[in-house]
Design goal:
167 residues, alpha/beta, Rossmann fold, six-stranded parallel beta sheet, 6 helices
Length: 167
């Protein structure tokens, strides 16, 4: 299995990327290698050589995706939608599996955004794992070095990943 974790924002130094790195570290502790796709600074607004390079390295080889989704205006970031809209959907998405985690500084953990993305992923013929984890008040769950330090949240992530590995 090839895993790609997508930090679904192009904001610099985001909490989303910090959580994505925590997922990558937990997978590594389980003996599973993964790639981390950071959308920061990428031009995916049209089909171009940069997007094609991203497809070849991160999307096409993956059989499983882990989306870390920040809440943007009650949904997920447009940069992620542009990535999907401009990619070769058959080779990048069809027949693959996805895990969704929402992050927000508010109290809902981007529940609505995860549901919006679920609809899009189903359209792209991606099977979405049932355990969608909302991580609320994410800024309070990270230590000064930006590591996920809240033990109940770490345990929830580990359980979610264990389920996804066997999905």
């Amino acid at each position: 299995m090839e895993y790609t974790i997508i930090s679904a924002t192009n904001r610099k130094d985001s909490n989303t990327l910090k959580i994505a790195r925590a997922y990558q570290d937990i997978l590594k502790d389980k003996g599973i290698e993964s790639q981390l796709l950071n959308l920061e600074g990428l031009n995916v607004l049209d089909r171009n050589p940069e997007l094609e390079k991203v497809e070849k390295k991160y999307l096409i080889p993956a059989s499983k995706f882990i989306f870390i989704l920040p809440e943007y205006n009650g949904s997920y970031p447009g940069i992620l939608k542009a990535l999907m809209d401009n990619s070769d959907i058959r080779s990048a998405w069809w027949g693959k599996k996805a895990l969704l985690t929402g992050v927000s500084v508010g109290r809902a953990g981007n529940l609505r955004g995860m549901e919006h993305l679920t609809g899009v992923l189903h359209y792209l013929k991606v099977s979405v794992h049932h355990n969608k984890l909302p991580i609320s008040v994410v800024d309070k769950l990270l230590d000064q070095q930006g590591h996920l330090s809240d033990e109940p949240t770490v345990m929830a992530v580990k359980k979610q990943l264990e389920e996804f590995i066997s999905f």
